[in-house]
Design goal:
Elements (H helix, E strand, L loop, with lengths): L4 E5 L1 E2 L2 E2 L1 H17 L3 E7 L5 H6 L5 E6 L8 H15 L3 E5 L2 H14 L4 E4 L1 E5 L3 E8 L4 E5 L6 E5 L16 E4 L31 E5 L9 H11 L2 E4 L1 H5 L20 E5 L5 H7 L4 E6 L12 E4 L2 H16 L2
Parallel strand pairs: 1-4, 1-6, 4-5, 5-12, 6-11, 7-11, 13-14, 13-15, 15-16, 16-17
Antiparallel strand pairs: 2-3, 8-9, 9-10
């Protein structure tokens, strides 16, 4: 009997991460090609209402790990609960979004299960003999490697925006299964007491369709207000280069790059960013890149679709004004 293509559906406060819906949509295609059922796995507390949402994206079954011990993500509790479910049900594949949670969770699951891990994949090929082959960028995106694992389950994390989330089908039904949650006390090395959430009306950096980023050329923390105003007009997220973060001008949660967040928006506006290779690795997959820099030799212009050679402190306010006109009709 088929064991299934399993997708870990990451949620926070009852809201499903967009990358999980993207992987579910692609998982449906993989399941159809391999003859496996598509299974969604959701962990948390009070999450039953989410089952209907993932069913619309093609899941045949939904496993719910509903427990107060899983209300907030901690390494030990999630690793313990998920590893036991996987060991019991033996899926063929277990796929996660390449998020901050999964970057912590997936390697631990791989170690616990004794299997390999394909990390940060951007494409999946179905092979009749080799099962799943994962394409992943290496050398800061200048080359690609193709990875397959012979162990089961195949374990992989998938970069956001690698696939397109399908339109949900409200008529599609899934079997909802309540999984027994048992967590070994030895795994609870950390007890989470409180989670502080930074409230923002802007979209999450890794899921935004538009990102406005600033670099060393911003000259100071107070000048990021220019980018925030532009971002609010166009419904964008705000990002930053490592240079700006290391200077203490903006929190590291906004860092875009090889050592920060990997983004792939429809539009990326780089303001005062020179274009170091580590930064390009984090945003090079953007569909359209607009660069604003007063240095005509800045490396960012080598990847930009549109370049503006000028002072960002003059250009950005002008862009904001023009976008306001477009938005307001």
């Amino acid at each position: 009997m088929p064991k299934g293509i399993w997708i870990f559906v990451e949620q926070s406060n009852g809201k499903i991460r967009k990358v999980s819906l993207e992987i579910l949509s692609q998982g449906r295609k993989i399941a159809d090609q391999t003859g496996e059922p598509l299974v969604a796995v959701i962990a948390g507390e009070g999450i039953r209402d989410l089952a209907g949402q993932v069913a619309g994206y093609g899941a045949d079954q939904v496993y719910l790990l509903d427990s107060p011990q899983l209300a907030q993500y901690t390494t030990g509790s999630y690793t313990s609960a998920l590893a036991k479910l996987i060991q019991e049900k033996e899926p063929q594949a277990f796929l996660l979004g390449h998020t901050a949670v999964a970057k912590d969770l997936a390697p631990r699951l791989a170690q616990r299960l004794g299997v390999g891990l394909a990390s940060d994949a951007i494409d999946i090929e179905v092979d009749p003999e080799r099962f799943l082959i994962f394409k992943r960028p290496v050398y800061t995106g200048n080359a690609f490697s193709f990875v397959e694992t012979t162990s089961r389950p195949v374990l992989a994390t998938i970069r956001a925006k690698s696939f397109i989330a399908a339109e949900p089908d409200a008529s599609h039904q899934a079997e909802v299964l309540e999984a027994t949650v048992t967590i070994d006390p030895a795994d609870l090395k950390v007890i989470l007491k409180e989670v502080a959430i930074l409230a923002s009306s802007r979209p999450a950096l890794t899921e935004a369709d538009i990102v406005v980023s600033g670099g060393r050329g911003m000259k100071g923390p107070e000048n990021f207000a220019l980018l925030e105003e532009l971002a609010d007009v166009v419904g964008a997220a705000v990002g930053a280069s490592r240079a700006a973060v290391d200077s203490g001008w903006i929190d590291n949660q906004f860092q875009v790059g090889q050592t920060g967040s990997i983004v792939a928006p429809t539009l990326y506006i780089a303001c005062g960013i020179s274009g170091a290779i580590q930064h390009l690795a984090g945003m090079g997959a953007s569909k359209f890149i607009v660069a604003i820099n007063k240095d005509p030799e800045a490396n960012i212009f080598t990847v930009a679709d549109y370049g503006i050679v000028g002072d960002l402190f003059e250009v950005v306010p002008l862009l904001t004004q023009e976008f306001k006109k477009l938005v307001n009709g």
